[in-house]
What does this fold into?
Amino acid sequence: MITNNPTILYVEDDPLLSEALTDKFTRDGFTILTAKNGEEGLATAVAQHPALILSDIIMPKMHGLEMLKQLRADPWGASVPVFILSNLSASPDIAEAKKYGVVEFIIKADFTLNEIVAKVSRLLVAS
Amino acid sequence: MSIQTKKIKFRPPEKANIEVKIEDLIQCFPEGVVVFNAARQVSFVNTTITAMTGLSSAGFDLSAFRRLFHHENLTNLAIRQVFSGKKFLHILEIKLTRFWYELFLLPLHHDTTTSGAILMLRDITREKEIDKTKTEFVSLASHQLRTPLSIMKWYGDMLLSDDVGRLNAKQQRYLRAVYESNQHMVDLVNALLNVSRIEMGTFTVEATMTNVPALARDVINGLTPQISSKKLKIKTYFNPAQLALSVDQQLLRIIFQNIISNSIKYSSAGTSIHITLQKNSSDLLFTVTDQGCGIPPEQQEKVFTKLFRADNAPSASPEGTGLGLYIVKSILDTVAGKIRFESKFNSGTTFFVTLPLTGMKSSPGLQTLIPTKI
It folds into this structure.
C-alpha cells in the first residue's frame, strides 16, 4: 500500500468506472480528483498539479488526446506522468498517445484495479 | 405410355467475322493503361489513364509519371529492371490526391526479347474506403463492447478481493462464475479484433533481435498460476540456452502463449508438459508436448479453422475461444513459419512450430495484433 497519499487525477466520462476506480484508489491510500471530460481534466490538472493523471480517450466536449496535447503545452503539464486508460486498441491511437509521452497505454478491460494500482504505485516510487 | 423422340438437326451459327482492334479494346478498360516501346517511348495511352493522371499521350513519359506519383519503390532502378525484362514492378497502394491505385509495370516480350513495357493503374479508392469503414466499425464495436466488460471486471474483482466486505462461500462461487464468464467475453473481443486485423491483412510485423529462449521462459513464468493450480510438471529443453533471432516479440509471444496455454488447459492435473526449443541447420523448432485429452482424429483437419473447438474441448476447458490456433497459424503463414501437430485421443498432443533462422521480415501495417495478457 502507498504511504505518502499522492494525488491522482482520473479523467473519465463513465460514472460507474469513475466510481470504481475512485473507491479502489482511495482505499489503497491515494487522494483522487475526478473530471468527466478533457476540458474539466485540463482545468483540474493545471489548477491542482496531481502527481499523475489517468485518462480515458473517448469523452464528450474534449477527448483525452486533445487534452493531452494542450496539457503538454503547459510548463508544468509538459512533464506530468500520464497513463491512458482506454478501451481503444487501434495502433494509430496508441501511436498518437505515445507522441505526447504517455508512460502507459492500458486497455481497461484487460486489467483489474489491483493491477492498475500496482502499476501506478511502481511508477510513483520510481519517480 | 410411349414417349416419342424426334431428331432435331442443329446447325451452329456461322462464325461472326468481328475485327477487334486491340487499342479499341484497351480503351474500354476501367484500368489505366500505357504501352511503352523498348526505347521507353509511349506507344499507346488509354483515356482512363488520362482521366486518372491528367497526362495525355503527348505529355506522358515515365519521368512525368514519377514526378506525379511518389513511392519509394518507383525508382529508376526498378524501371530499368522492368525494361530489361528482368523483373516486374507491383505496388499494392500508391496515392494521387485523394485517390488510391494499384500499379503494375510489366515487361512485354516478343519471342525472346523485351519489346517494351505496359503500365497499368487500377483504382482501389473504393476498396480502401470500405476497408477503412470496416476497421472503424470493428474498432468502435470493440470499444463499445469493452466498456460494460470493464465495469463488470473492476467491480467483480473488488468484490472477490473482499475490498468491501467478506462474501460467504456461495456468494464467492456465484460471483466467480460471473467474473470468469466476463473474462471469457474480454478474451473473445480481443481475439475477434485480432482475427479482423489478420483478415484485413492490416497487421504490422516489427522484427527486432530477441532472445527467443528468454521470451519462452517469460511466457511460461507468466502462466505459473494456471500451471500451479493444476499441479502440472513443466520440463523445458532449450538448445541453445540463448539464441537471438530477428522476430516480432509481440507476435512470437502470442504464438508461444497460445500453444502453451492450450496444453495447460487440456492437460489433466498432475501430468507433465515438455517444452523444447531446438536450433536446426535452417530453422528453429519449438515443440510443446502434453499428456492431455488429445484431439479426436476425425476432427483434426479442422483444428486451425476459425471458432473450431473439438467436441472434447469444452469439458476439459470451458473458456476457450476457438480462435487461438487460427490466429497462430495466420501469424506463421505471414512470417514464413510453419505449424503442425500430432495428437492421440485421450493420450496427448504435440505441436511443432518452425521459424526460419533468418527470422521474421518486418512489414508495415495499420495495426499491431493485441498481445495476450499474461
